[in-house]
Amino acid sequence: MTRTRDRAIAYYRVSTEAQGLEGYGMEAQREDVRTYCEKNDYDLVDEYEEVESGKKDRRPQLDEALNALATMRDTTGKTPVLVIAKIDRLTRDLHFLTTLQREQVRFEACDMKDANNFTLQIMVSVAEQERKLISERTKKGLERAKIRLAKEGRTLGNPNLQPGNARTAAIATEARTQKSKEFAQRLKPIYDQCISEGRTSLKDIAACLNEKNRTTARGKPWTTSTVSNLEKQLEVAKRS
Hints:
Largest sheet: 4 strands, parallel
Structural class: alpha/beta
Radius of gyration: 22 Å
Oligomer: single chain
């Protein structure tokens, strides 16, 4: 009798686009997770990626991944596994972690496969405390810098953004915002066409736009995170 392979869903996250380019980016996480799944004979059936701070509870792509896990569990009776490259890609919030554990969400981190619930809680608690300490040190450092510069008759920040150039900076920001709105409106008919074809998830919409040879404003292929940004722009335009 052939053994049924455990199914897995991957979740990748970077805090900012810059981190994705400079640090432990999407591609590095993807490579680690795929290698991990092959090694453990997991059937990797779906992947979700997100550009969002780990401090935020509201992460659309993580929500979609967790919903997909629940759907698979309901239809097969066998709990699939959420695979992440490192535990901090999932969360640095102890409350969030314990909530997942209480809901019996099965997840594994490539860098600590054999960790139990207690070990994971310790790791996340340390990361959470470290984040708080870094935040406190940063605030105190900024306060000291402001006091020191005030004595010298200077202010903290980019000299190009001092009062004399504030209006120029505001105009530039407004221009970028307007450009993003115009791009979203130009793409709306194609986006609506994808929706009418039944491509409603972020992943499906990204695939649809790529199939129709459409690129982002920066000329790159669409991903779930850039589709999410597009939808935010369209929602803002609808309300205005």
